[in-house]
Amino acid sequence: MLGLSIKEVSAALREGKLSATELCRKCLNRIKKTHYLNAYITVTEELAMKQAQEADHRLLRGKPLSPLDGVPFSVKDNFCTKNIETTCASYMLKGYCPPFSATVVQKLLDQGAVLVGKTNLDEFAMGAGSTDGVFGPVRNPWSYAVPYREQSVAQDLDTDWVITGGSSGGSAAAVASLSSFMALGSDTGGSTRNPGSLCGVVALKPTYGLLSRHGLIPLVNSMDVPGILTRSVHDAATVLGVLQGQDEKDSTTIQVPDSPAGLLEHFDIRDICVGIPKEYHAPMLCEETLTQWKRVADLFEGAGARVKEVSLPHTQHSIVCYHVLCCCEVASNMARFDGLQYGHRSEVESSTEALYATTRHEGFNNVVRRRILSGNYFLLKQNYDQYFVKAQQMRRLIAEDFWGVFQSGVDVLLTPTTLRDAAQYAEFIQEDNRTRSAQDDIFTQPVNMAGVPAVTVPTALSSRGLPIGLQLIGQSFQDMKLLTVAHWMEQQLDFPVIHFHDDAEERKTDKLQRERECKLGS
User: Fold this and answer.
1) If you write DSSP's letter for every residue of 142-197 in order, what string do you get?
2) What does DSSP assign to residue 380?
3) What is the CA radius of gyration of the chain?
4) What is d(CA 6, CA 264) in angstroms, rounded to the nearest whole number?
5) What letter would DSSP give residue 138?
C-alpha cells in the first residue's frame, strides 16, 4: 500500500478499497519503524489522524476535495505550520509555533492532504548533507536497502551508513522510506535535487515565482523556491498543479496565462531538442555517473530526439558568485534573530550588546555564524562594489547563458545532479560544510541563479547499490513541458523499488533519540 503512487492510492481511496485513516495509520507506523533514519523532527500523529478521519467522511459521501484528499505528506521544518513547532533544526527557533501556515502548506491542506510530520534538515537549510541540524544527521534509507547492505564491508548499522544530501534530506528520506507519499523541501542551490538524487526519488525545483515563498523561512530570498519530492514524475506534476499560482502575500509570484495543471497530452519525443552542456563534464565527476549520463542521452537520441552539445561558459563562476550572494542575504535575513525581536533569547543581562552577541552565539551553529560574518564583510561599504555588485553582474551573465541556449532551439538540458552517489557519513564530515556544498552543488546551483526549473529523475543504482540521478533543466514557466519530458525519460528507465534488509527493519536503534535529547536539554 505504501509503495503506491499518488494516482494509484487516490483511486483506491475514492473506490473505497482502503480508508484514509488506515493509510495514515500505516504511514505513522512506518515513521516509527524507520525512526533510526532521523528523517522527522516533529510527528503530527494526533492532527494527522483527525485530518484522515475528515477525509474519510468526504470520501464516503463521494465528495473528495481533490486527487490529494486523504494522501499523507510531510513538510521540511523551515516551512511555517500553524500551531506546530517550526525549528529550522536550530536552537534559535526552539519552541516557535507560527500563527499561520505557509501558502504551499495551506494549499495542500485545503486539498485534503494529511500532514504526518515536519522533516529534518541542515540548520536554516545551510548545508549539502542534512548533517548539521541540531537534531542530528539524517540517514539515507538506501543505507539499509538490500543492494548496499549486502555489499557493505562493515555490516554495522550504527556506523556504515550514507548521507541523504541536503538540505532537504529529511523530506527525501521520508518519501524514499515510504512514510510519506509526497514532501515539500526548499531549493536554494540544489537543496531538493541533491537529496532527491542521492535518495532515489523525483525532486522538482520549479521556476522562481511559480510557487509562493510566503511562510518559507528565508535563506536567500532571490533564489529560494519551494521544492517537491515524490516517487514519480506524474506525482510531482500533480502536486505542482495544486501549488502553482499567484499569491498576494508574495510579490515575486506571477500568474502564468494558460499554465497547464498536468503533464502535456500531445507530446512527441521527436520534436524535442536535448542540450548537453560541455562545461558540466567536471573533473571530479565519477565514471558511473558519466556512464549513466551518456546512456540516457543515447536513449533520447535513439528515440528520435535531437541531442546536441551546448555551452554555458559562465557556469565555472557560479559557485563563487553564489557564495557571495548567499552570505550577503543570509546576513540580512538572520539579523532579525537578535534576542530582542525573534527567536531564542539569552539570559545575559549585562548589556544589550552582550545579550545580542550571546544570543546569536547560543542560537546559531558554526556554519550559520560563518555565513553571517562573511556576508557582513562582503556588504561593508569598502567591499560592496568589489564583491556584491560584481557577483550580481556575474549572475546576470549566468542567466543569459541559459536564455541564449533555450532561444537557440533547445527544449531541455540533460546534466548530472551530483558528482557521485551518496558518501558515507564518516567520509562526508571530514570536510567542512562550505567545501562540500561547493562540490555537491556544482550542477544544481546555476539553475537557481537563472531562476529556471529543473527536475532530478532517479536513473540507476551504482556498483555500491546506491541511487544515481540525472537532472533535466527547462525554460522558465515551462515546468509542465519539462515534467512531460522527464516522465518520458522515467518510463525508459528501470529504477528499482527500495527493499529494506531484514536486520535494518528489525533493529531498534535508540542512539539517535538519546543524542537528540542530550543536545536539546530541558
Assistant:
1) GGGBHHHHHH-SS--TTTS-BB--SSSHHHHHHHHTTS-SEEEEEESSSTTHHHHH
2) S
3) 22
4) 18
5) P
Residue tagged active-site, from 167, 179, 212, 476: 167
Q: Strand 225-230 to strand 182-187: parallel, antiparallel, or no bridges (unpaired)?
A: antiparallel
Q: Where are the domains of the chain?
A: 6-245+479-520
**Contact indicator for 471, 401 with CB cutoff of 8 Å:** no
List the Cα angle 262/27/202 in 5-degree steps: 35
Which among 130, 180, 191, 462 is annotated as catalytic? Answer: 191
Q: How many residues does the chain have?
A: 522
Catalytic residue, candidates 10, 74, 76, 171: 76
Strand extents, DSSP E, 148-254: 182-187, 202-205, 225-230
| CA–CA distance, 358 with 346 (Å, rounded to integer) | 6
Q: Which CATH superfamily is domain 6-245+479-520 in?
A: Amidase signature (AS) domain (3.90.1300.10)
Is 76 one of the annotated active-site residues of the chain? yes
Describe the chain by its helix, strand, coil percentages, rounded to 5: 45, 15, 40
Contact 119, 40 (CB under 8 A): yes
Return the DSSP state at 460. E
Q: How many other C-beta atoms can be found within 10 angstroms of the C-beta atom of residue 305? A: 21
What are the mean pLDDT values of the chain's consecutive 10-residue runs (522 residues total)? 92 95 97 96 98 96 95 98 98 96 98 98 94 95 86 64 95 97 97 97 97 97 97 96 96 84 90 97 93 98 97 94 96 93 88 92 94 97 97 97 97 97 87 65 95 98 96 97 97 89 51 54 48
Backbone angles phi, psi at 75, to 5 degrees: -135, 135
Judge whether 191 counts as a catalytic residue.
Answer: yes
Q: Is the dihedral of CA 40, 46, 49, 55 positive or negative?
A: negative
